[in-house]
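Entry 12.
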Amino acid sequence: MMTHQTLRRCSASAAVLLLSAGALSLAQSAGPIAIAPGKLPSIGTVSERYQSYNIEMVEVTGGRFWAPYKQAKTGPAAVADTRPASTPGGMNPSLYRYRAPVDLSSPELRKLAAALSPAYVRVSGTWANSTYFDDSDGPAPSKPPAGFGDVLTRKEWRGVLDFASAVNDEIITSFAISPGVRNAQGEWTPSEAAKVLDYTKAVGGHIAGVEYFNEPTFATMGGAPKGYDAAQYGRDFKIFTAFIKKAAPGAKIIGPDSVGEGGSLGQQPPSMKLIRTEDMLAAEGPGLDVFAYHFYGGVSQRCSAMMGAAAKTSPDHALSEEWLMATAHEEEFYAKLRDRFVPGTPIWNTETAETACGGNPWAGDFVDSFRYLNQLGILAKLGVKVVIHNTLDASDYGLLDEATLQPRANYWSAVLWRRLMGTTVLDAGSTSTPNLYVYAHCLRHHPGGVALLVLNTDKAESRQIAVPLASSRYQLTAPDLLGTAVRLNGKNLALTANGDLPALNGESTRAGKMSLPPTSITFVEIPGASNQACH
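Predicted 3D structure (tokens):
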């Protein structure tokens, strides 16, 4: 069996062919691709909270987040700005638009989030690096203290804690690292982190994981003092870990949460001075419980002029092998650093989406569901334990429309993954069939059962697989790749009049051939597989 280390030595362009070596279980021939679900071997496991999501700190506090391409007439994006403007250092303010604090008490939002649980909800992001916690029950200050960019109130943080508890999620967060928390020597102090942790404990809340710094690779843009470097990061990280081990001994220390070094974001401009993860890891020493990185295959139209041609993408490219397999290439880059500096530490992808800078106009369309699900499938095979999508409901890459809370295309894919794909990862074999991607996990809540995920990215040609057992088919298609409408087995998916999810039933399918239409996503539920790896 091919090991994860062997997989990482493969180039991203070849990964679709070499991700598994179980050729006996998936045979290529002139006819349908035959799959023997009962014989697929286990190659690893993922967290029960493998598929998770971000709610950005700036959503919680209110502030200027990535401006949607279309101005909503109702909802948070249309509310007048009542707080001081705060944008990442060196970035064009016109890229952002004010949004009021997200209503985490919304029954509609909680209902939709609960359908994805259990998950991690990561409350972090660039804005968290400069957020001041107003540890009082009085009115929030009209502007943040010097050295900070935004204000988080007790009420807002309590809303996060209550939301996570209500939907069966666990919280991951980070703390301020801006000049406002530094002593006379410029060292990080736990002044803000201590307030957040103490208040959380006082109200009976729980934080499962903590990060020192969101995306320290771009430290100055992220709110760190001017001239911040890897040596300073290392000194601060040691202070941070010593504090966390005393103040929150049960919380996982997650990091470094780097981004953009594997080539996916192209050549960064000089204004975005990059601190290498290699240098940070060398300076910080031991302390990580989880090695984490971020991945974006490119930048959205908002930032493409700044980042250069190599970082641009288009909807015509969204189904290409190069685009879909880029996530494997980035994982390989960061996994090598993990293996070198903290071998054996679990690896997580703590932030990812269609593209950075809020996503492209098509980030919420059906065409991106292929990227979303292929990424979950391939990273599970490579040994990544958790993947956290950005975001639940903000900007164009949110799973939900931020103004209406209506599901976007990726939300339906997320729900089906949650319901069908268990935590044991199986080797589905390799195929030389172009534009076909096959993944397998043990079927959730069915001992011995197997779930398949098959992506046919060909725009013109159907494909076929052959399954020797009766199954249920969940086939996602769309009338328009560049639209949010999604059909399940030919029927449009939509919330009910009460805002509930519709019945998501599979279509009973006899043993034998199964057709995969062009640009289709098919989950196959095989409860009778009797796979010994799935008991």
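Annotation: Confidence is low (pLDDT under 50) at residues 1-25, 72-80. The first strand starts at residue 26 and ends at 27.
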